[in-house]
Specification:
This protein has a domain at 227-398: Alpha-Beta Horseshoe (Leucine-rich repeat, LRR (right-handed beta-alpha superhelix)), CATH 3.80.10. By secondary structure, it is an alpha/beta fold. The relative contact order is 0.06. Helix 1 packs parallel to helix 2 and helix 5 (137-149) runs parallel beside helix 6 (171-179). It is 32% helix and 11% strand. It has an 8-stranded mixed beta sheet with strand order 7-8-9-10-11-12-13-14. It has a 6-stranded parallel beta sheet with strand order 1-2-3-4-5-6, with no helix packed on it.
């Protein structure tokens, strides 16, 4: 027998079979709640603890089990033994765990957290935690920190899905987990945007400093929640890091944040030996409503000029405190830089004073400098330039 479907009604004899070791060849165990079946014909809370208890109590466990599917069962609402079973070393070949819509609670996710710390998930390559909406953000933060703090972590993990959960609200702990080197094989997360709060600024900064993000993880983005929040620590961390922002973070939405002129100057001066600079993978930067004045805008231009922003396509600086004179200095600084901004398509200032207009001279100089060869839209106040006669809707501004 290689596959078996179980319900609450027949869990006792099945658990007894597991306990005495008569299912040593089982590779796939799928226990699901089927909409077309009666409640008693499905697997749920009633069967969960007896099954996991049998695994723990057995002499060998299910040593060749590779896939465990508990999706849509809601069996995780009361269970206390799942994490214990994972740590028991009785599921040593397990590589695929599906807990989508499992009914995880703070307590049952805590069991998984203990399993991660105890090395119970070292062989897992796929972990689906989606649609577990009852777990609070603090518990998700604890789980992500457990990944970072564990001795081994999940070195084989390629797929992690916390989709439709509150995990997207704990961007700080998520960044710490990703940069810890404990999930080096991760290729897909199924969630693309994570928010971070005041505490998360320090977490994200430390993650950038450590820098051991998965090499093949595609783009995820971080956005600021609960502004205004000071971002100086983050900017300094990017500058002080060896590699800068990782390739898996192409977008930062820092709308509503606050930062000093000194922090920007420090970042601009931090080019070092990194090929391409510390922002070479960034494609979209949103700094709307950040109270950026002309002095800060000038420093930001120095950052762009110093670091090779070769992938940067979108910069939104809406609703700040800049003037036409400040924008002119910004453009002139980029125009005089060695590389300019070769892929920049959208540059939006949209100053808060509608009467502000940009004089054509500095703009003409910038455009003819060939340092903005890809620019498609430029906006400031009521002035809207479309150099190629095109409008473009891409990265959404806040």
């Amino acid at each position: 027998m290689s596959e078996l479907y179980i319900s609450d009604t027949n869990i006792t004899p099945f658990a007894d079979t597991v306990r005495v070791g008569n299912l040593s060849g089982l590779r796939v165990l799928q226990m699901r709640r089927f909409p077309s079946h009666d409640e008693e014909e499905s697997f749920g809370q009633v069967g969960m603890d007896p099954l996991m208890g049998a695994v723990v109590e057995s002499e060998e466990g299910l040593l060749v089990l590779e896939k465990l599917d508990f999706s849509s069962t809601r069996a995780g609402e009361e269970t206390a033994l799942f994490g214990t079973a994972l740590m028991s070393k009785k599921l040593s070949r397990l590589s695929d765990i599906d807990l989508g819509e499992f009914g995880l609670t703070n307590v049952s996710l805590g069991g998984l957290e203990d399993a991660v710390r105890g090395g119970g998930l070292v062989g897992v390559s796929s972990l689906n935690l989606s649609w577990n909406e009852n777990v609070e953000r603090e518990a998700w933060g604890g789980f992500m920190r457990a990944v970072a703090q564990s001795e081994i972590g999940m070195p084989k993990l390629k797929f992690l899905s916390p989709k439709v959960t509150k995990a997207n609200l704990v961007g700080g702990p998520v960044s710490v987990a990703l940069s810890s080197g404990k999930v080096p094989s991760l290729k897909k997360m199924d969630v693309h945007t994570f928010s971070f709060d005041r505490a998360g600024v320090g977490d994200l900064g430390e993650a950038v400093r450590v820098g051991a993000f998965p090499a093949h993880l595609p783009g995820i983005s971080f956005e600021l929640s609960d502004p205004p929040i000071n971002l100086d620590r983050l900017f300094r961390a990017i500058g002080e890091s060896e590699r800068g922002l990782p390739s898996c973070v192409p977008m930062l939405d820092l709308s509503g944040g606050r930062f000093s002129e000194q922090a920007l100057a420090s970042l601009a001066a931090s080019v070092g030996r990194v090929s391409g600079g510390k922002l070479s993978h960034l494609s979209c930067l949103v700094l709307s409503r950040c109270e950026i004045d002309d002095a800060r805008l000038g420093r930001l231009a120095e950052v762009f000029a110093a670091h090779e922003c070769r992938e940067l396509e979108t910069v939104y600086l809406k609703d700040n405190l800049t003037s036409p004179a400040g924008v002119s200095v910004f453009l002139e600084t980029i125009a005089q830089s060695e590389r300019g901004m070769p892929k920049l398509k959208r540059l939006h200032f949209l100053a808060p004073r509608p009467e502000d207009h940009l004089h054509g001279g500095p703009l003409a100089i910038a455009l003819t400098s060939r340092k903005f060869p890809s620019l498609e839209t430029f906006k400031i106040g009521s002035y809207d330039l479309l150099p190629r006669g095109l409008s473009y809707r891409g990265c959404h501004s806040s």
